[in-house]
Each structure stands twice: as structure tokens, then as C-alpha cells.
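Table 4 source record.
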Amino acid sequence: RLAGSPAAWPVERVLAVKLLLAIATLVVGLVWVTRLSLPSSSLALTIGRIALVPVLAVGVYLLPDLLLRARGHERQQAIQTMLPDALDQMSISVEAGLGFDSALQRVAESGDGALPEELSHTLRDISIGIPRKQAFRSLVERTDVPELRHFVFAVNQAEEYGLPIAQVLRVQSKELRVIRRQRAEERALKIPVKI
């Protein structure tokens, strides 16, 4: 879900690959143990090799999970990076006279990447009759980005209390830019330590 549910890797395929990798590792490991175990080799070395095979099989079994987790983390970072610019575009569109849904549509159509994909998915949910609040809740669950959660909360509050959405978008965009700058400064301060 956090990796964006890649079409090439549905859950069934990931589970099948995990199982096939584990079985292949077990087979190759057993062949390795039986072929390399000479009658003169020590019993401790043979037992060590036999114990290593299941450990490798478990490691290979978990490899697709690690790859998907890394993909999900990259996707979350991409959404965090794109969000302030998307909010700027939305606020400009709303100030120019577009409605909030039309501004979301504009951002979804004009961009490439994880955030426009998620916004398109949310707009499809709204267009088929899912209430906006629930569609935004699903967006937050699919992405798990704290800044996006904060934005959705602010938009829901603005809608509930009748606040002007353009002002909310402007404030949210400004806050997210400050947060993005602080993260960049924090990463820059860590570089000398890593070097």
C-alpha cells in the first residue's frame, strides 16, 4: 500500500516470488551442503553449513518485503517533497476562481509522480460518490505522510467551519516549506559527521 500498489507486483505475485525464492535457496543450499561435504571434512563444519541454509532461506524470503518497504519509504519522501509545490498550485488556482475539487484536479493532471497519482485516486473516489472526508481519510491511510495528514485535517476543519480554503492552502504551503527547509538544513548538518 505504501509503495503505491505497483501494478507489476500485486500481492499474489509478491507472495509467490517470496515462496519460490525461499524454496530455491533451500534447494541450492542443500545441494551445496551435500556436494561440498567431503567424508574427511569435520562434523562441525557440515553442521554449520546445514544451519546456514535455513537462515539464508529466511533472509531471501524477506528480501521482497525489504524492497517494497524501501520503495514505500522513497514514495513517502517524494510526496513530502512535492506537497508544498502542489499546495501553492492549488492555492493559486483557488484564488483564481477555481473550486477546491477543480484545483485538486489541476494538480493531479499537471504533475508526475506519487502525489498526483494519489490525488487522482482521491478524485476518482469522490467522483464515484464517496464523501470527501472519507476519500481524504483513505488518502492519508494510503500514503502515511504526516504533512499530508496535517493538510487533510486543516482542509476538513476549514470545510466544517466555513473558513476560506485559499487562506488555509496558503498557510499550509508556507508551513510545509519551512518544514522542508528545516529537514534540508538538518541533513546538511549531518554530512560532516558522516564524512
